[in-house]
Each structure stands twice: as C-alpha cells, then as structure tokens.
Amino acid sequence: MSRRYISGSAVALVTPFRQDRSIDTDALRRLVQFHIEAGTDIIIPCGTTGESPTLTGDEQFEIIRTVRDEADGKIMIAAGAGTNSTAHAVELAQNAIKAGAAALLSVAPYYNKPSQEGIYQHYRHIAEAVPVPIIIYNVPGRTGCNVAASTILRLARDFENIAAVKEASDNFTQIAELLEERPDNFSVLTGEDPLILPFIAMGGDGVISVAANEIPSQVKRLVEAVKRGDLAEARTINSTYRKLFRLNFIESNPVPVKYVLAQMGMIEEIYRLPLVSLSAENKARLDKEMESLGLI
C-alpha cells in the first residue's frame, strides 16, 4: 500500500432527507453522479457531515449500499463508521464493510475523554476486527480530546490497515510531526478547507472536505494545483472560495452546506433534530456569497 492510496480530494458527504426525514435515495444518487463528474477522488458517506449521530445501523447500511451501487466502481467509498463506544464502533465498521465500503473513517471517541492509551486501544480493536484501510478522524473541536501525534504514529506503525488520518485541527506543530515522522504507507489529510493550501504545501496528501459538497471540481483543482507546485493558481482558487470555506461553519456543520445544496437544487433543506435551519441573517450571508460565486 503506497502513501498515495488514500489521497486527493475526498468529500464528507451530506445525507439528504425527504420531508418525512427518511433517506432521500434519489437525491443521494444525484450527489454521487455530481462527484463522479467533478472528479472527486473519494466519497465519504455517514460521517459527521452526514449527520451520523442520527442514523440507525440500517440507515447507515442503506446509504453506503446506495452510494456504492451508484458509484459502480468509478470512485472510492470510504464510509464513516465511528462512535465513542469501542464495541459499537466495531459493529458500525463491520456493517459498513458489508454494505460495500472499501475503507472506513473512524472518529476519535468523543465525550468520554479517554487517555491516549485508551484511544490507542479503541483503534486497535477496530483495526483487528476489519480488513480494510482505516482513516483516524481527529477533530478535537467536536470530540473534546486530541489524538496526539505520538498515538497516531504508534497506530500507523503497529497496524498496516491504519492507513491515514483526517487531521481536523489547525495545530501545525502536530501536523508537521505527523508529516515528518509518518511511515511511508500512511496518508495525512486535512479536514479543514481553509487550510488546504498550506497543509498540502507542507507535504499533506489531500483533504476530506465539506466545501466539496458544493464545489467539488474547484476543491479538486485546488488540491491538484498545490500538489504540482502551482502556488499562483492555488492562491487564486483559495482566494475565490475562502469566504465560502468559512461560511460553511457559520453555524454547526452540516447546516450551512445543506442550505447551500438546497439552494442549488441538489437536495431538500431537511435536517434531523437537534439540528435546525439557519437563522435568517446567516441565510442572507450565504445567499450573497452564493450569488457572488454564481452557484445560484
């Protein structure tokens, strides 16, 4: 497995719902085709952006299977399959593989605030239970704990299928340590759209992106521009979309990005509680930016 096995532009896919809040499989299929046409490298359904805390095991299976069938081998499927109970995380991982996932994104245990040894043991049990590549998802702002670089590197060295990390922080000291000390078969991706340019310029392998839901071809172009060293082109793309990158988090993700997709005609603007629609003020701010970018 080369370092580039998990790399490029990956989308943290939203979950479209119908008015009755069931899974909108028709919209889901449209989103998959949107990403195939845009050249997205990896689709990640059932992550945090996909409102995973509100999904049942059956729904997780249905979403992944729908995405896999629609993708028809044209794009890699790396499904979200994490939670803060290790036993349940293993169940979700095995369920995702049965549904057709080729890789897994597994969030660090949230709320429990385990020690670094506890985090290591959590991922050890998952790695030993499944045969596919696992992406560690480190997102301290949402989990309440940081997966230290030393723990990530230890896991990468001890388990061949611990294949990557989605580092969703702006801790450049940790990012540098990961990039400089990782084994050759381990990918490091950012989970922060505003950091794509500096992150990949430092040697990162790609992004797991929220903005790629709305502008997949542009995120792909940004990643590729930085990788080939065309920083002038990368700065132009980054400057064009930096406000959208920021506005996608004006309220809790994925509320803003689902609002944008609804305005683009891709999905209905439906959330599952406890998420609710954007405030009128923030809708107006996003409307202005969408008009400026020609998205609506």
Secondary-structure element series: EHEHEHEHEHHEHEHEHHHH
Structurally, the number of domains stands at 1
Question: Tally of extended strands?
Answer: 8
Query: Average pLDDT, to the nearest integer?
Result: 96
Considering DSSP H and I runs of 4 or more, what fraction of the residues is helical?
Answer: 40-55%
Please state roughly what percent of the residues sit in beta strands, choosing from under 5%, 5-15%, 15-25%, 25-35%, 35-45% or over 45%.
Answer: 5-15%
Alpha-carbon distance between the termini? 41 Å
Shape: globular
Architecture overview:
This protein is an alpha/beta fold and 296 residues long. It has one domain: Alpha-Beta Barrel (TIM Barrel), CATH 3.20.20. It contains 12 helices and 8 strands. Strands 1-2-3-4-5-6-7-8 form an 8-stranded parallel beta barrel, surrounded by 5 helices. The chain is globular and about 50 Å long. The termini are far apart. The mean pLDDT is 96.
Any key phrases for this structure?
12% strand; globular; TIM Barrel; 296 residues; alpha/beta
Give the topology, please:
Blueprint: E1 8-12, H1 25-38, E2 42-44, H2 57-71, E3 76-80, H3 86-99, E4 103-107, H4 116-129, E5 134-138, H5 140-143, H6 149-158, E6 162-167, H7 172-181, E7 187-190, H8 196-201, E8 206-209, H9 216-227, H10 231-247, H11 255-263, H12 280-293
Parallel strand pairs: 1-2, 1-8, 2-3, 3-4, 4-5, 5-6, 6-7, 7-8
Helix pairs in contact: 1-2, 1-9, 2-3, 3-4, 4-6, 6-7, 9-10, 10-12, 11-12
